[in-house]
Write a structure and sequence with these properties.
Strand order of the largest sheet: 1-4-3-2
CATH class: Alpha Beta
CATH superfamily: 2,3-Dihydroxybiphenyl 1,2-Dioxygenase, domain 1
Largest sheet: 4 strands, mixed
Strand content: 25-35%
Number of strands: 8
Order of helices and strands: EHEEEEHEEE
CATH architecture: Roll
Number of helices: 2
Helix content: 10-25%
Length: 135
């Protein structure tokens, strides 16, 4: 039987799509591959990097949520080298956390402009709770 499920794509409602696109494209290195621009304004986009995708859509002013966005949301990106990504993100001006080992993986985390937590993780045999020290 051919598998029916193909991909899971996070879909974030955002308050300022321009700020979010800057964070994901300039900061994290994603590329915008699809977009919806009714009346010439970007409202939705599909972003990709190395086979990973996510979607952003700006809330209409009349539909802005009253609660804080991102609470309890954490997206885990499994990668080859979380430490290298941490360096890359910092070089692009983002505040990535110092990599540490949790659950057998190096983890570095960031928070996007709306409060969504992004964890970049790579497998390791380093001791649990180790923290990475730059050389």
């Amino acid at each position: 039987m051919t598998p029916n499920l193909k991909q899971s794509v996070p879909f974030f409602g955002v308050t300022n799509i321009e700020a979010s696109v800057r964070f994901y494209v300039k900061g994290l290195g994603f590329a915008m591959t699809k977009q919806w621009t009714p009346e010439g304004k970007l409202r939705w986009c599909w972003l990709e990097r190395e086979g990973v995708a996510l979607m952003l859509q700006e809330y209409l002013p009349a539909h802005l949520p009253t609660e804080k966005l991102g609470v309890g949301v954490s997206i885990c990106f499994i990668c080859e080298d979380a430490i290298e990504l941490s360096r890359e993100f910092k070089a692009r001006g983002l505040e990535a956390s110092r990599p540490f080992v949790g659950n057998g993986m190096w983890v570095t985390s960031l928070t996007d402009p709306d409060g969504y937590r992004l964890d970049f993780e790579s497998y390791t045999d380093a001791e649990e709770e180790s923290e990475y020290e730059e050389e």
